[in-house]
Specification:
This protein has one domain (10-400): Orthogonal Bundle (Cytochrome p450). 52% of the residues lie in helices and 10% in strands. The chain has helices at residues 10-14, 17-26, 43-51, 60-66, 69-82, 93-102, 107-111, 114-126, 136-141, 143-153, 160-174, 183-207, 213-219, 229-260, 262-270, 275-285, 317-320, 355-372; strands at residues 29-32, 37-40, 55-56, 134-135, 291-296, 300-302, 305-307, 312-316, 377-378, 384-385, 394-396, 398-400. It is globular.
Length: 402
């Protein structure tokens, strides 16, 4: 049977790992006709893609330049901001932006958030009726990282519902959703609304600066450089989007893994000091980042296949994280796994800026959940997976906490 990677198939969206394994064994650099893109699945090749100077992270500009008519009009405003996101920039602009942001997102600044994160976890759990089935995503996994990011930016938590709608609409475009016919209009509206929201926040912080991360970014300097107005807006949008989407997926996927492997959950409950290795294993086993996207900048060969300038490449992080050439028993969840050199946060210059925050939120939240809910289990309804090629997460996860 011919292997075809098509993420619109419900079975692939639900569980892509059997196909990833077949691709690794038989066609590790696979041309997907449905996507008109290369699909890379082996660990060594995915790492090579992440580090390669022959591939560009700017996948938006070629798409925009090839667009015409109404779609191009909708994409123009999206490009104004998203093309300034750190994740889509090549050096030297990527280097300049990263250096500026590193002065704000220091290890000590992130570590200082632990008490706030702990308090937020307790606050959310206090509002949950654990005697009834709940949707873990909407009742917990979505709220925690959203509130944490909003507290970091010092914007009101009560604004989260509308910001979440904008973020979800942007995700349709950024995450490469395949089954949403009006995704460009919705992504445009979400982008414009979020940009205007943060424009107002930045204006207020310049007039009344504080110790929040928006104020710090307005004051960030490096060798005389500073962030422009549009770069500030774009970075706020990126922090809100990536900061809550990725961690929501981490928490949801991890809790599903706890349900699927109750013996591992019990190990964690009995050995809470293993939480850091447990979080790394959750990140590896079914991580929140399904793939990274690149565009071929220079003709070259990868895995015996000829890649041509302009072609798209999706390096499947979650496939690489279960490559038997890199991990023993890769299909097993082992919360004590060490070493655990997963690729979930990327490699090289584009290593995820928010990785320390995602890890901290995972460590705090999942330790509390494992300790407090020893009888955690699935509710009657099936979980519902997000329609996205870049992200990997759940729209809905019905659970019984007690």
């Amino acid at each position: 049977m011919e292997l075809v990677y098509d993420p619109t198939r419900p079975d692939i969206r639900r569980d892509p790992f059997p196909l990833y394994q077949q691709l690794q064994e038989n066609d590790p650099v696979h041309w997907s006709e449905p996507l008109q893109s290369w699909i890379v699945t082996r660990y060594a090749d995915v790492r090579k893609v992440a580090m390669s100077k022959e591939l560009s992270p700017d996948r938006l500009t070629p798409f925009y330049e090839a667009s015409r008519g109404e779609r191009r009009e909708l994409l123009t405003e999206i490009m104004r901001y998203l093309n300034r996101w750190l994740v889509f920039r090549d050096p030297p602009e990527h280097t300049r932006l990263r250096r500026l942001l590193n002065t704000v997102f220091t290890p000590s600044a992130i570590a200082s958030l632990r008490p706030t994160i702990t308090g937020t976890v307790e606050h959310i759990l206090a509002d949950i009726d654990d005697s009834q089935p709940i949707d873990f995503i909407s009742k917990f996994a979505m709220l925690l990282p959203g509130y944490v990011i909003m507290d970091m930016l010092d914007i009101p938590r009560e604004d989260f519902p509308k910001i979440k709608v904008w973020s979800d609409d942007m995700r349709l475009f950024i995450g490469s959703a395949r089954d949403v016919p009006d995704k460009y209009q919705r992504a445009h509206d979400g982008c414009v609304n979020m940009a205007e929201y943060f424009r107002g926040v930045i204006r207020e912080r310049r007039a009344n600066p504080g110790e929040d991360f928006v104020s710090r970014m307005t004051k960030a300097r490096d060798e005389g450089n500073m962030l422009t107005e549009d770069e500030l807006i774009a970075t706020c949008m990126l922090l809100l989007f990536a900061g809550h989407e990725t961690t929501t997926n981490l928490l949801g996927n991890a809790v599903k893994a706890m349900i699927d492997f109750p013996e591992q959950r019990e190990r964690l409950r009995e050995n809470p000091d293993m939480i850091e290795t447990a979080v790394e294993e959750f990140l590896r086993y079914d991580g929140p980042s399904n793939s990274i996207a690149r565009v071929v900048a220079v003709d070259h060969e990868l895995g015996g296949k000829q890649l041509r300038k302009g072609e798209r490449v999706f390096a499947m992080i979650n496939a690489a994280n279960r490559d038997p050439q890199q991990f023993e028993r890769p299909q097993d969840l082992d919360l004590s796994r060490s070493p655990n050199r997963h690729l979930t946060f990327g490699q090289g210059p584009h290593f995820c800026l928010g990785a320390p925050l995602a890890r901290l939120e995972g460590n705090v939240a999942l330790a509390i959940i494992a300790e407090r809910f020893p009888n955690l289990r699935a509710a009657d309804k099936e979980p519902d997976w997000v329609d996205a090629l870049i992200m990997r997460g759940l729209m809905r996860l019905p659970v019984r906490l007690t």
